[in-house]
Write a structure and sequence with these properties.
four-stranded mixed sheet, 8 helices, Ribosomal Protein S5, domain 2, alpha+beta
Length: 292
């Protein structure tokens, strides 16, 4: 089964009053194009995360985020009481030493704005225990994205199978018109020559030229090659993921045979069928860009 390059995954876990969340999404790209946004405490592990993501996803334009959300009950920064007391003692000492009057307004707003009065204790080193949790969350988000890719890939495969079947049906519809047109070409040429009575026709040479002309319009080889490409496309889809580029090449070859058939189709009925085949193939080409 094929995989889509489009996907999304998200996972979270609680660790000591904070919520660790990993979020990842991908769209189609010719190669791996990975952008990361990682919380500062996990930056030292960025290369490990990049290797993990690249090995799992292989190809695509990927955005990965690993961030922390804190519990609101612990969100307020604590007041550093010793520093606050030291500021108050210093202000009172200066007022006393210089004979100044203490400010009449409330001191607290000013005191709280002084350096280091409000502090937050942040972990400066990443513990092994926390990293195990964060890494597990990252892997869960990747697993969720891969499940999304498989689901989208199954939908793409059903779409491709439908389009391949449609092209095969249209190809079969050409047969009646192809066999009839040979006689039409022959009759038209003979009628044209008979309408010119003064022209002397070498019947042997005429037959040779008609055979040459009809062979130039023959599409038997194109039909056979197109049928082979249709079959090969289906077989390639069944071979598993990582076939996107190969499917794209096969679709190009299918287009070449359809275009040649169109250029050799000199009756309206055949040309109409070729237009319908091109429409089905164009839808395949659009969607094959999303295949891994």
């Amino acid at each position: 089964m094929i995989l889509s390059m489009t996907g999304y995954g998200k996972a979270s876990a609680e660790f000591r009053g904070k919520k660790i969340t990993a979020e990842i999404k991908s769209v189609n790209s010719k190669a791996m194009d990975l952008q990361t946004r990682i919380a500062p405490i996990y930056r030292e592990k960025e290369m490990e995360l990049r290797s993990l993501i690249s090995a799992a996803l292989e190809r695509g334009k990927v955005d990965f985020s690993l961030y922390i959300e804190r519990d609101d009950s612990n969100a307020a920064a604590p007041i550093n009481r010793p520093i606050l007391k030291s500021y108050i003692d210093q202000i009172r000492s200066i007022v006393s030493d210089y004979g100044l009057e203490e400010p009449e307004e409330h001191w607290m707003p000013t005191l709280l704005r002084l350096p280091d009065v409000l502090t937050r204790s942040e972990a400066v080193e990443l513990s092994d225990e926390e990293w195990e949790v964060a890494l597990a969350v990252a892997k869960q988000s990747i697993d969720a994205l891969m499940a999304f890719r498989r689901q989208e890939g199954a939908a793409l495969q059903r779409k491709f199978e439908e389009k391949i079947t449609n092209i095969g049906v249209l190809l079969a519809q050409i047969e009646p018109f192809e066999s009839a047109r040979v006689e039409k070409i022959r009759s038209r040429i003979v009628e044209g020559l008979n309408s010119i009575p003064e022209v002397q026709v070498d019947r042997n040479r005429l037959e040779q030229e008609m055979i040459y002309y009809i062979e130039k319009l023959d599409i038997s080889e194109e039909k056979q090659r197109l049928a082979n490409h249709l079959r090969y496309f289906t077989e390639t889809m069944e071979n598993g993921h990582g076939q996107g580029k190969k499917l794209g090449f096969i679709a190009q070859e299918m287009g070449r045979e359809i275009n040649t058939t169109g250029s050799k189709s000199n009756i309206a009925e055949m040309q109409n069928i070729v237009v319908k085949m091109k429409d089905e193939l164009e839808q395949i080409k659009e969607q094959v860009l999303n295949v891994m």
